[in-house]
Amino acid sequence: EKAVNLKKDLAEMQEWMTQAEEEYLEKDFEYKSPEELENAVKEMKRAKEDVLQKEVRVKILKDNIKMLAVKVPSSGQDLATELNVVLENYQLLCNRIRGKCHTLEEVWSCWIELLQYLDLETAWLNNLEERVQMTENLPDKLDAVNDALESLESVLRHPADNRTQIRELGQTLIDGGILDDIISEKLEAFNARYEELSHLAVSRQIALEQQLQTMRETDHMLQVLQESLAELDRQLTSYLTDRIDAFQMPQEAQ
């Protein structure tokens, strides 16, 4: 009777493993939204816990069959053969579910990381847009233009590492068919805004550099002119002090 019960337990265990394989491993999942992906991760975590909890039952079966084999070698030998098959299938099921759970967790981590990089670069784009707007309607002063240029250039020196990560993470998920529509839309919007703002910022940078150069040249010309006028003023003052007649002065002084 004990052998019959153990045989029944082995059959039930094998049936459970077949159902678990169909439910968790053979189902085709399509992850078209973050909610679907997150739910799949949670489901596979539950599946992993469920399968690992059966380890106690498998051990009890194994111990009982070993004890039966000692008492009734003939019945125990047949059950031991069946047990080995169940043990192999159980180990295979555990490994496959662990692997799928790890893969889904990695995919979810990849998605979260992509969002984090997009947030960082979006914040940088917002900053860049603000700096570009600050270059408009500047007072016609050398310091103001120089400060605006330096401020804009400091933002433009932003490294490209984050954009590289965004491109690679997005492409990895899209290649795997994971959230491909959502990611493509996000990347398209981000890249379009990046190209537009970068082009505008560089154009403003060039315009400010040219404006700054013109203002510096004008300032230099004014300085030279002021020095020349000051020298002429000193000469005229000297002539007047010495009471020199105008007709005795050089032509330019007259």
Please tag this protein with its features:
254 residues, Methane Monooxygenase Hydroxylase, Chain G, domain 1, Spectrin/alpha-actinin, coiled coil
Tell me about this structure.
The chain is 85% helix and 0% strand. It has 254 residues and is mainly α. The protein has one domain (1-211): Methane Monooxygenase Hydroxylase, Chain G, domain 1 (Up-down Bundle). Helix 1 (2-24) runs parallel beside helix 3. The longest helix is centred in the middle third of the chain and has 62 residues, at 73-134. The mean pLDDT is 88.
Rg (C-alpha, Å) = 40 Å
Number of strands: 0
Shape descriptor: rod-shaped
What string, H for helix and E for strand, traces the elements in order? Answer: HHHHHH
Which CATH class?
Mainly Alpha
Strand percent estimate: under 5%
Give the helix tally.
6
Coiled coil: 3-64, 215-242
InterPro entries: Spectrin/alpha-actinin, Spectrin_repeat
Keywords: Coiled coil
Protein name: UTRO protein
Describe the SSE topology.
Blueprint: H1 2-24, H2 34-71, H3 73-134, H4 142-156, H5 161-175, H6 180-241
Characterize this entry briefly.
By secondary structure, this protein is an all-alpha fold. Helices cover 85% and strands 0% of the residues.
